[in-house]
Specification:
It contains eleven helices and twelve strands. The protein is of the alpha/beta class and 348 residues long. Helix 2 runs parallel beside helix 3.
Length: 348
């Protein structure tokens, strides 16, 4: 089995400071930089930052924060999760990540997606009615830009490109590119068609239900003659010294966040029983290091994925000190334990 990689992800949720008050957006961004520096120190493979344009998440420009992280780290890969390509310009996205790749000495990677939040569409003047065509055309442009040769293109969502040579070029001649997918077969096939890596966003329900998408990606890649890269997955979770401590610490902020977002989307308030069930048999990786390690190992083995990213700040307004401790436990106890379980071949 290929060596599995482990990452952490955050959308820049606003944590609580030592005084119990919500941090400012600026302080929340600095907190993420500190957490990423710790991740680099303790052997976590990847740090990925989401893009949001709303009050409860501090990061709207992942590349800027990743560049700050690059200045404090030396080995961890630096990516987005995701870059909302539909409401961005693919030329500028390539330029920003090629720049990040330069300042990080080749550690940049980009996860392209349409995003589960749509605030960026009105903010940047895009019509939700163009949701599909925006992504289709822009991912096509981005795939051409990745050749790092002059690009010509014509479409409906941006001005045409005529032998446009885009700078800077990457030092290696390639930029690692993923597509984030939430469960659409068409999106899986699209990722395979372009030869991009596939990152599955598994945020609820049993992880095993995503196994058909992994199989589809590999079959589509074979039929289309592209490379089937190791598949990645990301899910929410939190780690503390004991199962009870982790569950109780994570629940208030997670419920508040889910109820807030659910209220916008017409979901009912989350019940404690649903939370506990999601931890026991769903896609929440909350508990002690051993509990979380066993659950991660089972998912990696069951889905045969090559990368697992833990969205460690999904508990909303949690104390910053608890978040930092969760990152530490993930890197120093969970990941080594998962590797042991996978080596034994019998995660449970």
């Amino acid at each position: 089995m290929t060596r599995v990689q482990f990452g952490i992800e955050t959308f820049g949720d606003i944590p609580l400071g030592d005084d119990g008050a919500l941090m400012t957006h600026a302080a929340a961004i600095r907190q993420v930089v500190d957490e990423a520096a710790l991740a680099d120190d303790i052997g976590i493979d990847a740090v990925a930052l989401g893009e949001h344009h709303r009050h409860d998440f501090a990061i709207s420009s992942p590349e800027m924060v990743l560049s700050a992280i690059a200045s404090r780290t030396s080995r961890v890969s630096l990516g987005s999760a995701v870059t909302v390509l539909s409401s961005d310009d693919p030329v500028r996205v390539f330029q920003r990540f090629a720049t990040l790749d330069a300042v990080s000495s080749g550690r940049a990677e980009v996860i392209l997606g349409r995003g589960s939040f749509t605030e960026s569409f009105p903010l940047f003047g895009f019509d939700m009615a163009d949701y599909e065509v925006l992504f289709e055309e822009k991912i096509e442009i981005f795939s051409r830009l990745l050749t790092e040769k002059p690009v010509s293109w014509e479409g409906t969502t941006r001005p045409a490109l005529h032998e446009a040579d885009v700078y800077p070029k990457t030092e290696s001649g390639s930029l690692t590119t993923w597509v984030g997918v939430g469960g659409s077969p068409q999106s899986v096939i699209r990722a395979a068609r372009y030869g991009f890596r596939l990152m599955l966003a598994i945020i609820g329900g049993q992880p095993e239900r995503f196994a058909p998408y992994v199989d589809l990606y590999r079959r589509a890649s074979e039929q289309l003659g592209t490379t089937a890269h190791p598949v990645g997955m990301h899910s929410h979770g939190f780690i503390a010294a004991t199962d009870e401590e982790a569950r109780e610490a994570y629940y208030p902020g997670y419920k508040a966040m889910m109820d807030r977002i659910g209220g916008e989307r017409g979901w009912p308030p989350m019940a404690r029983s649903s939370y506990d069930a999601e931890i026991t048999s769903g896609s929440l990786y909350v508990g002690s290091p051993d509990t979380v390690a066993r659950k991660i190992a089972a998912s990696i083995s069951g889905l045969d994925v090559g990368r697992f990213d833990l969205v460690y700040t999904g508990g909303g307004a949690m104390p910053a000190s608890q978040r930092m401790r969760a990152v530490e436990l993930y890197g120093t106890e969970v990941i080594p334990r998962v590797r042991e379980l996978l080596a034994d071949g019998a995660p449970s």
